[in-house]
Amino acid sequence: MKKWIIVGAVTVLLLGLVGSGYLLLSRSGADPSDEDFIGTASDVSGEPVEVELGTVSSVLVLDAIVRAESGEKVRARQGGTVTHLWLNDGASVDKGAPVVNVSLPAEGGAVEGEDGEEDAPATREVTLYAPASGTLSGLDDVLVGDVLEPGATVATVSSGKFQAVAQVPANDLYRFYDDPGEIMLKIDKGPPAAECEFIGLGAGNDSSSEGDDETGGGEGGGSELSCRVPSDLTVFDGVQGKLSVSTGEAENVIVIPVTAVRGNSESGEVIVIGDDGSEEVREISLGLSDGNFLEVTEGLSVGEKVMDPIPLDPRFDIPEEPMDEFDEEFDEDFEDPEIAEES
């Protein structure tokens, strides 16, 4: 039992020494100021680095999945009865080609016969045309004599084109300062990488399937980036790959390490080290980031020195409760039958 008392006393003493710096700063009842914290943290790990000119090329690599574009639909907007099929399912069509004829009641209504009785309602013939060039599908389900509801889809014209879709994590949206530049698509176990034409960046596109977990769509947050796969690249619906997205490049600009800045989008703060060793917390404006370096658009000059890495913001650097874990381990050890028997 005595050995546990000694171990506990030593542990408490060590923990007290570790926490003494924090207690000295905060025992007055107020949180430590930025200046107080900077003085202690910079002496431990940070060192001055010189501000220089450089190039920042921001590239984001994302997991992607290929999806076939949904195509355009041939709709019977007013409904009607199918009277003629011009083409078969799977046929190639040009935009404006006739696909199906349907009959509709004439606008004048029923026609009155010679004997004064109403004859069968007058009808008019309407032709439905292909809204785009491509391949027809869905006509196998349409027969002459079928009655179509208004707005019913008769067939679909597929373009045969594909899109690559990737989920952009919400925090990475800060890296998009404008529409992305070059986008390269690399299919897993597929052909060499090829350029993919940017389509859009948003909550989702009409051609994308909902809730696709394979691209991270089920995780929530973020946005969906889509690009059109080149027609000469052999792909299949559902194959996976990666997108390398260029979100910007800046040459001959002021750059500093990302670890020297608190905040890495639009604005942040650094600790500028003076020639006499003095430290100044300074607000700066930021531009591009490549994950290692940040472009500084305002607030710093070439030749100045900043602390790297910058100490954590004291408002968020709260010490953990070290005794909780020790207490749990102590309780588990004390409950051990062999230890309990020895004590």
TrEMBL record:
Signal sequence coordinates: none
Query: According to the UniProt record, where is the region Disordered?
Result: 201-225, 311-343
- Known Gene3D superfamilies for this protein? 2.40.420.20, 2.40.50.100
The domain of life for this entry's organism is Bacteria
List, for all copies, the residue spans of the domain called Multidrug resistance protein MdtA-like C-terminal permuted SH3: 252-306
Acidic residues bias located where?
319-343
In Swiss-Prot or TrEMBL terms, this protein is called: Peptidase M23
Q: Source species, please?
A: Nocardiopsis alba
